[in-house]
Amino acid sequence: MQIKPIAGALGAEISGIDLTGDVTAEDYRAIRALLVEHEVIFFRNQDVSPAQQHALASSFGPLQTHPAYATVEGFPEITILESTADKPSKIECWHSDMTFRLHPPMGTVLRSRVIPEKGGDTLWSSMTSAYDGLSPQMQAFLGELSAVHDFAFGFKESLAEEGGPERLAKAVADNPPVTHPVIRTHPESGKKVIFVNPLFTTHILGLPADESSAILAFLYQHNTTAEYTCRFAWEADCIAIWDNRSTQHKPINDYFPAHRRLERIVIDGDKPY
Question: 117-145, pLDDT tens digit by residue?
């Protein structure tokens, strides 16, 4: 495999491997090591089937399902992320996937199906670099704090739609708010990362609301400092794999009313500590 880093903080394009062919256990180990090192990795010209995408994701561990999204027939773990003129995407802010879970995903495997002629890129940001960019005093202060993450907060727009509360009632009931440390330790690299995001984090425990809001606002701005980010321009049949423990990402919704469809699998993770 050939590795081409695409930014200073994170991200690398990987070539020289055919994910539609026979991928060996050694290949999977190498891919995992590259993921931990680069935090998000990209593969182009990989026309994988749902079964092959499922096998790739399963090489990292057990898979999770999503409580709200439509899925690919026969593969309940593959969720469909689709934006059309009639139903444009609602997710526009920076986030880590599904931090409303007690065990948030360790990683995500995203495969492109339909890509607009222009626009539709995705940004990623390294929460490892963001943590390293804090002063030692701020690192110590945040290291003692925990924050609440809530499914209902992240899907408030869907819940506000007609029929939304009824459609999502089970998902809300099955996913009550959870608490995670503001600073978590990556279980493989041992590095510290910032683990709050504007989509699912509601507040920091033990602080007055105004102080919690101010700290979160500072972190959300700090986390997306340009030097901590990379950007990927999608084509059809691309695959992105990111470490959900140490990155955040943001889709750029600059392609309306064009059609965009990607298919995502999330890999089970551990309880943040």
Answer: 999 999 999 999 999 999 999 999 999 99
- Quick check: is 103 catalytic? no
Distance CA 162, CA 153 (A): 17
What are 163's two structure tokens? 């029929």
Question: What is the domain range of residue 171?
Answer: 2-267
Whether 232 maps to a domain, the answer reads yes
The whole-model pTM stands at 0.94
CA distance 147 to 270: 17
Tokens at 141, concatenated: 């202060």
Give domain status of residue 273, yes or no.
no
Q: Of 32, 54, 95, 101, which residue is the catalytic one? A: 95
Per the listing, tokens 């994910």 go with: 19
47 catalytic? Reply is: no
Q: Please indicate, yes or no, if residue 134 is contained in any of the structural domains.
A: yes
pLDDT at 41 over 80: yes
Which is the catalytic residue, given 101, 184, 249, 260? 249
